[in-house]
Amino acid sequence: MGVERVQEIANFSKETIPEEFIRTTYEQPALTTVQGTVLEVPVIDLSDPDEEKVVRAIVDASSNWGMFQVVNHGIPHETVRKLKEVGKAFFELQPHEKEAYAKSPGSQSIEGYGTKLQREVEGKKAWVDHLFHKIWPPSEINYQFWPKNPPSYRKNNEEYAKHMHGVVDKLFRCLSLGLGLEGNEMKEAMGGDNMVYLLKINYYPQCPRPDLALGVPAHTDMSAITILVPNDVQGLQACKDDHWYDVEYIPNALIVHIGDQVEIVSNGKYKSVLHRAKVNKEKTRISWPVFVEPPSDLEVGPHPKLVNEANPPKFKSKKYSQYCFCKLNKTPK
Ligand code: OGA
Ligand code: NI
User: Fold this and answer.
1) Are 176 and 185 within 8 A, CB to CB?
2) Using CA positions, which residue lies closest to atom 8 of ligand 1?
3) Which of 42, 102, 208, 214 is deepest in the core (most CB within 10 A)?
4) Is the minimum distance from the CB of 230 to ligand 1 under 6 angstroms?
5) Which parts of the sequence belong to the Fe2OG dioxygenase domain (predicted)?
6) Cα angle vertex 317, ends 314, 320, to 5°?
7) Class assignment of domain 6-295?
């Protein structure tokens, strides 16, 4: 098909990397990361019976960072381990086996195995390959994009999707209460039980020049929230007050990103986090974000209970599909 996978490029790149992967000095991680800092993305214990305390912690983190990690989240560690095991196994298959799931170039859908996501400024490339497919609700799933190999891929992904509902509900409830809304109102504004869970696997091969390249350039997620599990190779960075900070790897934690849709519904009280991913010289990094999204035809805008004459809406209401189209094609909002 002629698309070059970064995994293949990495096999030939022992000391240097092709020029199109070299970032400008404004982006190079070695030049733009705050070193040895004490500032850290908050870690929140979701099993704390003091719900008000959890709400306060989530409000703080979502307003100041737009990102936090959660521990004791209720998803069995074994379920997460099995999700990671089969995703890694897929990327370790021979190229022709992976290409069977390749996204077709003209396709409108984001699903499938692929290499390039955003159109990037100055034609720069990200050091990553990925696989996208929906995991919820069942009516939205296209199994043609789910690897048949390894054989337990489907079972393990279905199990993870099933266990996600508890965390998703808890997070939306806290985000909702934190705005002074009823517990269910934030979730309802995102489509309630019709919300879509879109899984992405990012596969960042080892890279001889992690100081010059990026796995994913700076962006905010379009989703409502994103729930990410990484492997044990640190690489995620969050931007706060114009500075880049490493997000610590905590075994068994989930990393929650506030996405653009929650920022919009909250009328700007919660911030969608600007983040990016570095790559590693010795190790392959892999991450499994799930983008929790409104259904594509749902109109999303600032919650009516949060706007009035003193607090006018800061965002236009838009169908989610329209929002994504505008952002990916960079047309003015
Ligand atoms: C993404 C993303 C970060 C990571 O895929 O949207 O931000 O840690 N990934 O892989
Ligand atoms: Ni992201």
Assistant:
1) yes
2) 236
3) 214
4) yes
5) 193-294
6) 125
7) mainly beta
Instruction: Assess contact for 318 and 299: CB atoms under 8 A.
Output: yes
Residue with CA at minimum distance from ligand 1 atom 7:
276
Supply the residue whose CA is at minimum distance from atom 3 of ligand 1.
Answer: 277
**Cβ–ligand 1 contact at 161 (below 6 Å):** no
pLDDT in tens, the chain (333 residues): 456 899 999 988 888 999 999 998 888 887 888 877 657 899 999 999 999 999 999 999 999 999 999 999 999 999 999 999 999 999 999 999 999 999 987 777 889 998 775 556 667 899 999 999 999 999 999 999 999 999 999 999 999 999 999 999 999 999 999 999 999 999 999 999 999 999 999 999 999 999 999 999 999 999 999 999 999 999 999 999 888 999 999 999 999 999 999 999 999 999 999 999 999 999 999 999 999 999 999 999 999 999 999 999 999 999 999 999 999 887 554
Distance CA 6, CA 24 (A): 19
Kindly state the DSSP code that residue 297 receives in the 8-state scheme: T
Reported pTM? 0.96
Beta strand 112-114 with 129-136 is antiparallel
Best of 287, 324, 327 for a ligand 1 pocket test (most atoms within 8 Å of beta carbon): 287
Which of 274, 117, 126 has the alpha carbon at shortest distance from 213? Answer: 126
Ligand 1 atom at shortest distance from the alpha carbon of 128: 10
Rounded CA-CA distance 100/98 in Å is: 5
Distance (angstroms) between ligand 1 centre and the Cα of 46 equals 22
Give residue 198 CA to ligand 1 midpoint distance, Å. Answer: 13
